Amino acid sequence: MPEVNLYAPDETAMLAVGARIAQATGGRGVIYLHGDLGAGKTTLSRGLIRGFGHEGKVKSPTFTLVEPYELGDVQVFHFDLYRLVDPEELEFLGIRDYFEGNALCLIEWPERGAGILPKADMDITIAPHEAGRTLRLSPHTARGEAWCVALTD
Ligand code: ADP
Ligand code: MG
Asked: What ipTM, to 2 d.p.?
């Protein structure tokens, strides 16, 4: 499956990339976000969520594990599982419901939820490069591939 590689030279560019990805997804699917602390996972998520028209704050769900957004007919669930001790905890959050609806799920630290989370349509791996960040988008489903095609048009 083809990968897409992007470069965001600064935070503003990162937010713009997020908005482009938002448009490509149409607001349905599962994206895993990879990268060290401070890589830019939450910044990219902020760009995505604002890309659907959200004008308020997008705070990091580090302590709440998940933050929901209702944006017109699009529902976004932004997860940060950094503090998750046991994937079973996710069951108590009722997360199955989140994945059954027609929502877009953005998941930081997905490896902490292994075995409980649904499969990703796409992995996005963020890494520092010079003053900015590289983003590697790896699709795993037909839906993820369609996003990549839309992003390279
Ligand atoms: P994470 O969620 O991966 O821990 P955050 O998004 O919270 O990372 O923080 C990333 C930090 O890097 C923020 O200070 C943000 O301003 C900065 N940043 C985000 N994207 C870029 C970029 N493309 N280039 C340079 N700095 C960036
Ligand atoms: Mg974060």
From this structure: 0.99
Task: Confirm or reject: Cβ of 128 under 6 Å from ligand 1.
Answer: no
The ligand minimizing its distance to the Cα of 82 is 2
Q: Which of 123, 125, 126 is nearest to 147 (CA)?
A: 123
* Residue 59 CB coordination number (10 Å): 13
Distance CA 50, CA 34 (A): 20
- Top-confidence residue, 136 or 93: 136
CATH 3.40.50.970 assigned to 4-152:
no
Angle at 59 between CA 53 and CA 60, to 5 degrees: 125
pLDDT of amino acid 105: 97
* Ligand 1 pocket residue status of 45, Cβ below 6 Å: no
User: Which two structure tokens, joined as six digits, stand for 141?
Assistant: 């489903």
